[in-house]
Design goal:
This protein is an alpha/beta fold and 313 residues long. 35% of the residues lie in helices and 17% in strands. The strands form two sheets. It has an eight-stranded parallel beta barrel, surrounded by five helices. A two-stranded antiparallel ribbon has the order 1-2.
C-alpha cells in the first residue's frame, strides 16, 4: 500500500494534518536541493527507492526563487527558463502521484530574503502550476520557504510583512483550487512559529513552517514549538538538518534525537534537507556519488545514514 492509498487526500483540522476520517497523519520525507542545479534526482527510480527502502511518504521540490549557486532562480530567469523549471516541478509531482507519494511544492525564498520582493513571480508560478495540479490530491503548496533578513542592513522581515505576502498569494491559489493544504513560512528563517501562533492567518487549511538544524537550534526553538502547539497552531517542519544551520558543520546526534522525539510525540511532519551530492554535511549523498538513483549504503553520507534511521522511526 502506498502512502496515498493509506491516507488519501489530507486537510487541516485544528492543529493537525489529518486524513478524510479526521485521523492525524505524520508525513516524513526528503527535500531536493535547488532544482536548477540538481534536476537529475527527479526520477521515478530514485523516488521508488525512497518510498520502498527508506520509508519516505513525501518529497519536497525546492523551486529556488532568486539567484543562488550561480544559477538564476525562477524570479530572475527569462520565460523559457521559467517554463523549464515549471516542467521539472510538474514532472516531480507526476512521479509522486504515480508512486502514491505526497508532493510538497516549495517556493524557496532564501537569498531574496523578503517574499514580497517577488510576489508577482510567485503569483505567476502558482497561476501556471495550480490548474495543472488541480486533480493531484497528493500535492501540498509551500508558499515561502525561509523569510529572513537583509544581510547588508540586518533588517529582518516581520510577521506582518509575511502575512501581507500570504494574503496576496493564498487567494490566488484558493481561487484555482481551494482544497489544497497551504504552508506559510515564518520569521527568522522559519523559526517564528510563536509569532504565528499569536496572530495566525484567517484562512482554512493552512499550516505554518518551522525549520531547525540540530547543532544550531536547541531548547529555545523547541520551546517556541511547544508554545505554538499549546496555542493549537498547525506546524509542519518542511526542512530540517542534523548538523549546523549553514548546511555544514558537525552532526549532532543528541540534539537530533531530542527534535525527532518531540516531532514524533506531537505527530508533526518533517522533511530532511537535502537530496544532492553537494560537498556539505546536509547532503544525503557523498560528494563523489554520480548516481541519480539505485543508491547503496556506500553512496549515503553520514547525513544520509541518519536520514534512513529517522525515516524508519
Amino acid at each position: 500500500m502506498t502512502p496515498f492509498e493509506k491516507y488519501g487526500k489530507l486537510h487541516v483540522e485544528g492543529r493537525n494534518l489529518v486524513n478524510e476520517e479526521g485521523k492525524t497523519v505524520q508525513l516524513k520525507g526528503i527535500s531536493t536541493h535547488n532544482l536548477n542545479v540538481y534536476p537529475e534526482y527527479i526520477n521515478e527510480e530514485a523516488f521508488t527507492q525512497f518510498r520502498d527502502e527508506y520509508k519516505v511518504t513525501i518529497m519536497r521540490l525546492a523551486m529556488y526563487t532568486g539567484f543562488a549557486d550561480d544559477f538564476y532562480g525562477y524570479a530572475d530567469s527569462d520565460d523559457k527558463h521559467r517554463e523549464e523549471l515549471e516542467n521539472i516541478v510538474l514532472k516531480g509531482a507526476e512521479i509522486c502521484r504515480k508512486l502514491g507519494l505526497y508532493c510538497m511544492i516549495d517556493w524557496h525564498v532564501l537569498l531574496d530574503y523578503d517574499p514580497n520582493m517577488h510576489t508577482d513571480m510567485s503569483i505567476r508560478f502558482f497561476k501556471n502550476i495550480c490548474p495543472k495540479l488541480k486533480d493531484y490530491d497528493n500535492v501540498i503548496y509551500e508558499i515561502c520557504n525561509e523569510p529572513n533578513m537583509n544581510l547588508e542592513t540586518k533588517e529582518a522581515v516581520t510577521w506582518d510583512q509575511i502575512k501581507k505576502y500570504a494574503r496576496d498569494v493564498i487567494p490566488v491559489i484558493k481561487e484555482i483550487d481551494d482544497t489544497k493544504v497551504i504552508i506559510v513560512g515564518t520569521t527568522i528563517w522559519s523559526q517564528g512559529v510563536d509569532e504565528a501562533a499569536d496572530a495566525p492567518l484567517e484562512y482554512d487549511n493552512i499550516m505554518y513552517t518551522l525549520h531547525f538544524y540540530a547543532d544550531t537550534h536547541r531548547d529555545k526553538l523547541r520551546d517556541k514549538l511547544v508554545y505554538a502547539r499549546s496555542k493549537d497552531l498547525p506546524v509542519f517542519v518542511t526542512e530540517f538538518g542534523v548538523g549546523h544551520a549553514n548546511g555544514d558543520g558537525v552532526i549532532n546526534d543528541e540534539e537530533s534525537k531530542k527534535w525527532i522525539d518531540l516531532l514524533n510525540k506531537e505527530k508533526i511532519g518533517h522533511i530532511i534537507w537535502n537530496l544532492s551530492n553537494k560537498a556539505e554535511t546536509s547532503a544525503i549523498l557523498v560528494p563523489g556519488c554520480k548516481k541519480a538513483n539505485g543508491f547503496t549504503d556506500e553512496d549515503l553520507s553520514e547525513c544520509g545514514k541518519r536520514m534512513k534511521a529517522i525515516m524508519a522511526i
